[in-house]
Amino acid sequence: MFLRVARHTNNLEKIETFYVNILGFERLGGFQNHDNYNGVFIGKSGLDWHFEFTESNDNVNHHPDEDDIIALYPTTVLEYNNLLENISRNNISIITSKNPYWNQNGKMFLDPDGYRIVISPLRAKNIIAKNQSSKSNKSMNILLETERLILREILPTDEMAIYRLDSNPNVHRFLGNNPITTMEESRKYIDHIRNQYTQNGIGRFAVVLKETNEMIGWSGIKFITEPENNHVNFYEIGYRFIEEHWGKGYAYESAKAWLDYGFNEMKIQKMYASANKENVGSIKILKKIGMQQVSEFDWNGIPCYWFELENK
Ligand SMILES: CC(C)(COP(=O)(O)OP(=O)(O)OC[C@H]1O[C@@H](n2cnc3c(N)ncnc32)[C@H](O)[C@@H]1OP(=O)(O)O)[C@@H](O)C(=O)NCCC(=O)NCCS
After folding, report:
1. Whose CA is nearest to atom 9 of ligand 1?
2. Residue range of the domain that includes 82
3. Which of 62, 142, 163, 177 registers the highest number of CB atoms within 10 A of its CB?
4. Which atom of ligand 1 is nearest to the CA of 170?
5. Long-range pairs of 106-110 with CB within 8 A, sequence gap ≥ 24
């Protein structure tokens, strides 16, 4: 059996734009003036269901209540995250569901006709492009290689390198947070990053010097879920290196590799970054990889630049 969910609308164009451009469906077909009805079929090729939206000379007469919901289940974490990013970029507000289940298991918002839609990560597998994340050992199976560097997941055994990195006040000069003072903090930080791998399928990665096999810092893509400069649920590029390895082009080399990976493998639509306005080195790197400085904002009292780059 095939399923078609048909709905009347006074905003056919807006509805089509919303379901296709924001929610990522396809326009499967449409018709004009069939007994005074215009319509579009919206779905995904290969699926045995789709929406039909119709417009006629009559005004719509909808009475959806707060529990009338369309629930969508993206099949990968990446698809789920991309949808959230799209929704946020289009300034669509996330609303609270009357039924608490959906607040715990998804994000609710309204379509242009005021119907409630939920996207839920419950069926999303933690797959990133070609790289599969295995839940059993939480290993990332992503390994990038550049001319001089290996970019691999951060491991619990990196605690000493993270300590060397993050206990140095010079490293934290423009970061607005305090250097760490104990190995326990180093371990907690590693746990925090590895949790992001599981939750978001991506996070900061260790940068290892091929020549010596030494971990010299981290670099990578983080999925940011807290609001920053009026953005939420976006991918950000960042890096941090042990001081003795500064000035050798490693930050640029790794950041470029991550930008390419984010655009070509993860298919991220827009990459973001930010830097303290005084962090000349970081600003230079971001500009060198092609990020565009689009605005300024205040981050916890620190004046920062905001960078963006569209994946074209
Ligand atoms: C900022 C940081 C990542 C730079 O790393 P790096 O490996 O030294 O940077 P690179 O060698 O790749 O430098 C790339 C370019 O920036 C320039 N640059 C780097 N640091 C600079 C500085 N402090 N002042 C001026 N230019 C600088 C380099 O000369 C190079 O320019 P070029 O391409 O014209 O030769 C490093 O200093 C660091 O880890 N700082 C602490 C953490 C931090 O601030 N992270 C960024 C948060 S937004």
Report:
1. 251
2. 3-119
3. 142
4. 41
5. 106/71, 108/69
